Amino acid sequence: MKSKKIFVTVQELIDGLGDEMKFKVISGFNGLNRHITAAEVNRPGLALTGYYEHFAKHRLQVLGLVEMNYLKSISSAEHYKRLAQLMQMRIPAFIIARNFVPLPETVALSNKYNVPIIRVPGVTMKVVNKTSAWLEDQFSPSTKIHGVLMEVYGMGVLIMGKASVGKSECALSLVERGHILVGDDVIKLKLTEGIFVTGYANPMIGHHMEIRGIGIVNIQSLYGVKSVRTWKHIDFVVTLEEWQENKSYERLGIDNKFIDLLGVKTPNVLIPVKPGRDVALLIETAAQNEKLKKLGFNVAREFNDHLIASMNKKNCKSN
């Protein structure tokens, strides 16, 4: 089932980015449970001057060089009035860039209204970009799916199918051929940057695989660190199913099939499985074929067009 966070607390932000960004909370500690409900952050320049129309009060507020110098340029009474007005709007928190030291009035208001103030040494735009990227990742729709995620010739391939159809055995064969395992059994999917479906290995399982008849194997231990990675954008899906004699399978590949992953239309290749078929080789071929399609070359369609043109030419000659 697809899930999406509706808020992140200020404390979660600090836990997630604090070490990397060197966050330091200096006041407003009672407000660390406040909710952040948007990935975007805001620089409240106009609001500090008293213009509140369209003010994004639900966003994190970042104070940089311009905002801090403005606050220092106005009177203490005006400063107190402007900041009090903003903090009563229930904003999540202030982040002060460049390690600027807030004025005493700001700290006093922060403690009065329980609005955390966080100092950070980075330049303002770096703080804005890093914080927005982290929040966007937190708010991205996500889901969990059963399958195996591989990197084959640089393409992210999600292998799906019913239990015991041979997904893990096929993935093991691909690793043996030099391709890369991302994860087996449970894959977390997340919509990143609004356009990519990215798959992540389950941290509980890591790069272990269950191979029926053998048991649990550790791919990294067996094949080295080059054989694994922790995430990959998904370029296409391979669905494995047991061969059904009465079913008509795609033979030309002219009509593209798709599957919906977190709202993204993703190419889907159906591969029937039966004894004697080298499924790993077929997936390698499918990966190369999908790579050509991304470059604008559709071999099946070009072959079909060439065949129709040849037939039309023969018909013209016969007439």
Topology at a glance:
Elements: E1 8-9, H1 10-21, E2 24-27, E3 35-36, E4 41-42, H2 45-48, E5 60-63, H3 65-73, H4 76-87, E6 94-96, H5 104-113, E7 117-119, H6 124-139, E8 142-152, E9 155-161, H7 167-176, E10 180-192, E11 196-201, E12 208-211, E13 215-218, H8 219-223, E14 231-233, E15 236-242, E16 258-261, E17 264-273, H9 279-294, H10 299-318
Parallel strand pairs: 4-5, 5-6, 6-7, 9-15, 15-17
Antiparallel strand pairs: 1-3, 2-7, 8-9, 8-10, 10-11, 11-14, 12-13, 16-17
How do you describe this structure in short?
The chain is of the alpha/beta class. Helices cover 36% and strands 28% of the residues.
Tell me what you see in this structure:
This protein is of the alpha/beta class and 319 residues long. The chain has helices at residues 10-21, 45-48, 65-73, 76-87, 104-113, 124-139, 167-176, 219-223, 279-294, 299-318; strands spanning 8-9, 24-27, 35-36, 41-42, 60-63, 94-96, 117-119, 142-152, 155-161, 180-192, 196-201, 208-211, 215-218, 231-233, 236-242, 258-261, 264-273. The protein folds into two domains: 8-138, HprK N-terminal domain-like (Udp-n-acetylmuramoylalanyl-d-glutamate--2,6- Diaminopimelate Ligase, Chain: A, domain 1, 3-Layer(aba) Sandwich), CATH 3.40.1390; 141-303, Rossmann fold. The chain contains ten helices and 17 strands. The mean pLDDT is 90. Helix 2 links the parallel strand 4 and strand 5. 36% of the residues lie in helices and 28% in strands. The N and C termini lie far apart (60 Å). The strands form four sheets. It has an eight-stranded mixed sheet with strand order 14-11-10-8-9-15-17-16. Strands 2-7-6-5-4 form a five-stranded mixed sheet. The chain has a two-stranded antiparallel ribbon with strand order 1-3.
